[in-house]
């Protein structure tokens, strides 16, 4: 056979997803890699054990199964190396611990995933790292916030719940001039629709719990670094003793095979519903960066090649006192949409987004923010379910 890797380099996304992290010739021709369960790994002799002169040395340092997934993620990210961790939150916290020390300062986007903020305000603070939160729309203006001890700039685009866009290239360029590491939570877009390392990011973070899994039953995170930061990330990962399990790695690798076509369906259905919501009188605003009406649309259009299945809208209400009651009435009337915190799976979900933690990027004032994860159900059924939510909120 010809070299498959050479062919894949110029292939389409679904072709690549079907074949990356896949080496049948290594496993007697079987299409999928075996699930190798391991803690102890034996060495042929004492010298090999002393020098660790073999590819696998202990279960936490990787198996053929976890390596297959890491190789697939590297192929998508264009990264020098990837580590697996037990959750999306761990994928954020491991690089923070890898690149920050006591006395350092970090800049974190204010529209960040709330558990990331909690980690910064508790664990990082206790470890002697100071944190400031910045406006997601700051762009190159972030230079005014960088201090002599700033070591890391964390980005997330779009932002959690309100989907603010960031000029990742401009922020990265400024951060690098000051010797800062740039990290990015890229879970929303996945490396199919945005490749952080191509825009100056040093460490790309992904909650594989979401679209790579696709079935709401796996917790895992991936952390991918460029060559300049890979060794330090790998060292921290090993020192913390974190690893993804072979069973979960196998399931994530399996999920990757269909991620492209699933994302296409998520995108199509979500844009259909988002545009429909824009036309409704009971909606104050739709928060989706792929809509021309959204303030960050130009950045999204410039840098991203697609959009995924999660966005928010602002439910129009008459007074702030009605925010919670109207939001709860809307949610409680839903039948198909489940009420759950995660997203990226096959099923649609809805939550009343909590935004009281914001310090710079304030919550919308027109009404409560309802976040929707649009799954793989038929759009007509999802619309009918949303209509029931609007009717219940109006009747309150």
UniProtKB/TrEMBL annotation:
Which Pfam families does the record associate with it? Cys_Met_Meta_PP (PF01053)
- The kind of enzyme this is, by top-level EC class, is lyase
Q: Which GO terms describe its molecular function?
A: cysteine-S-conjugate beta-lyase activity; pyridoxal phosphate binding
Q: Which residues are modified to N6-(pyridoxal phosphate)lysine?
A: 210
Give the keywords, sorted. Lyase, Pyridoxal phosphate
E.C. number: 4.4.1.8
| Alphabetical GO biological process terms | L-cysteine catabolic process to pyruvate; transsulfuration
Which cofactors, by name?
Answer: pyridoxal 5'-phosphate
Q: Kindly state which reaction or reactions the protein catalyses.
A: L,L-cystathionine + H2O = L-homocysteine + pyruvate + NH4(+)
Q: Report the transmembrane regions from the record.
A: none
Q: Which family does it belong to?
A: Belongs to the trans-sulfuration enzymes family.
| Name of the protein | Cystathionine beta-lyase
């Amino acid at each position: 056979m010809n070299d498959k890797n050479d062919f894949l380099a110029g292939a389409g996304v679904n072709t690549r997803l079907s074949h990356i992290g896949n080496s049948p010739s290594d496993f007697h021709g079987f299409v999928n890699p075996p699930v190798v369960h391991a803690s102890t790994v034996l060495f042929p002799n004492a010298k090999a054990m002393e020098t660790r002169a073999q590819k696998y040395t202990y279960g936490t340092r990787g198996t053929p199964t976890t390596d297959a997934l890491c190789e697939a993620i590297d192929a998508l990210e264009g990264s020098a190396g990837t580590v697996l961790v037990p959750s999306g939150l761990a994928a954020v916290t491991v690089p923070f611990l890898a690149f920050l020390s006591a006395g350092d300062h970090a800049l974190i986007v204010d529209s960040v995933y709330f558990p990331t903020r909690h980690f910064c305000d508790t664990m990082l603070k206790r470890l002697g790292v100071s944190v400031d939160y910045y406006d997601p729309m700051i762009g190159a203006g972030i230079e005014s916030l960088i201090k002599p001890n700033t070591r890391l700039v964390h980005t997330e685009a779009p932002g959690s719940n309100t989907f603010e866009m960031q000029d990742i290239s401009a922020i990265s360029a400024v951060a690098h001039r000051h010797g800062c590491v740039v990290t990015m939570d890229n879970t929303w877009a996945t490396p199919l629709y945005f490749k952080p390392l191509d825009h100056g990011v040093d460490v790309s973070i992904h909650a594989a719990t979401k679209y790579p899994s696709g079935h709401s039953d796996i917790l895992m995170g991936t952390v991918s670094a460029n060559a300049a930061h890979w060794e330090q990330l790998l060292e921290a990962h090993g020192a913390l003793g974190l690893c993804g399990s072979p069973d979960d790695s196998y399931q994530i690798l399996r999920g990757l095979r269909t991620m492209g076509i699933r994302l296409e369906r998520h995108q199509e259905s979500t844009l259909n519903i988002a545009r429909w919501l824009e036309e409704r009188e009971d909606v104050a605003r739709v928060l989706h960066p792929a809509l021309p009406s959204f303030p960050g649309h130009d950045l999204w259009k410039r840098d991203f090649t697609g959009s995924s299945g999660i966005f928010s809208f602002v439910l129009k209400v008459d007074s702030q006192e009605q925010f919670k009651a109207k939001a709860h009435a809307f949610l409680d009337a839903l039948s198909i949409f489940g009420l759950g915190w995660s997203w990226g799976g096959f099923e649609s979900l809805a939550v009343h987004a909590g935004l009281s933690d914001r310090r710079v990027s304030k919550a919308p004032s027109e009404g409560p923010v309802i976040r929707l994860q649009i799954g793989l159900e038929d759009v007509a059924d999802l619309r009918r379910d949303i209509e029931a939510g609007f009717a219940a909120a109006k009747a309150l």
